[in-house]
Write a structure and sequence with these properties.
Length: 314
């Protein structure tokens, strides 16, 4: 976009997009997103309430689950205002500064989720490989320190992003390709030298997703080695079963990320709707699935839910 003097400038508002090429079905997408948000918010609030109220859940594993649910709630609430405005009220505009704030929180919560999943893999590693020291290694103070460390790391690495975007002029229009603000999407309409943004963005992705995923794989390699050393097949299955919820959560988070990366790398000619849908899966599916996964796969969570349900019926 050009100002009165012919120079590029930052627009007062940016225009958000729904699902490209599917404008006739916006009402259905509005309904789908409302259902996804309802499941995500109610599910994660239920997990938070259960961990606080049930003494049996006051254990390291569930403290990490509390962090994951709190973070998933943050992811959902970060995207909710603009997504509902776009699909439910047909309002496609967002202020430039508000867009930067949303971008910051979306990416921060996404990177925090990766760190929390790494912390949960360490929890499973200690529980299986060194169970006698589990309570002494994962004390409440250390769990709090790990949570604050994840928050600090994500906040400090993402903090420069809004300022790096703010310094750029915008001359390629003000239309974004999603119903929320993401850094790569903003780079598509920015002018000037965006090499710093791209290089720093790549560094942050490697420093978070790359490092975290490597350590998660290492944790499970050590867990698998310890499980295979167990003589009893029943004990092996029992040990692996304690990891299934976390494995499903890791897959729900990382598979969409890998899919998005593969599409960007090897299918550059993919229709815009493919990129948008995969980005939606990456942001909306994990916060919705995680409460379901832990409710189905974790006996203590199921009991807590049934207990709360019976109380409400009494």
């Amino acid at each position: 976009m050009l100002g009165l003097n012919g120079t590029a400038f930052q627009p007062a508002t940016l225009q958000l997009t729904g699902i490209p090429g599917m404008q006739t079905g916006q009402a259905w997408f509005a309904l789908i997103f409302c259902v996804l948000y309802s499941i995500s918010i109610v599910g994660n609030l239920s997990i938070l309430a259960l961990v606080v109220r049930e003494p049996v859940l006051h254990q390291p594993m569930y403290y990490f689950l509390f962090m994951l649910s709190l973070n998933d709630l943050g992811v959902s609430l970060s995207t909710l205002p603009t997504v509902l405005a776009t699909f439910c009220f047909n309002y496609h505009h967002v202020g430039f500064d508000a867009c930067l704030v949303q971008m910051f929180f979306i990416h921060t919560f996404s990177f925090m989720e990766s760190g929390i999943l790494l912390a949960m893999s360490f929890d499973r590693f200690v529980a299986i490989c060194d169970p006698l020291r589990y309570a002494t290694v994962l004390t409440t103070s250390r769990i709090v320190a790990m949570g604050l460390g994840i928050l600090t790391k994500s906040f400090t690495t993402l903090f420069p992003f809004p300022f790096l975007v703010k310094r750029l002029p915008f001359c390629k229009g003000n239309i974004l390709h999603h119903s929320y603000c993401l850094h790569p999407d903003l780079m598509k309409v920015a002018c000037g030298d965006i090499h710093v943004n791209n290089i720093y963005g790549l560094f942050v992705v490697i420093f978070t997703y790359g490092v975290d995923s490597i350590f998660i794989l290492l944790s499970y390699a050590l867990i698998l080695r310890a499980v295979l050393a167990i003589v009893s097949q029943e004990q092996r299955l029992k040990a692996l079963n304690t990891c299934m919820s976390h494995i499903c959560a890791v897959l729900a988070f990382y598979v969409p990320i890998i899919a998005v990366s593969m599409i960007h790398r090897f299918w550059k000619s993919a229709p815009p709707v493919v990129h948008v849908m995969m980005s939606n899966v990456y942001l909306f599916v994990p916060p919705m699935l995680n409460p379901i996964i832990y409710s189905v796969k974790t006996k203590e969570i199921r009991r807590g839910i049934l207990k709360a349900f019976h109380k409400s019926q009494a």
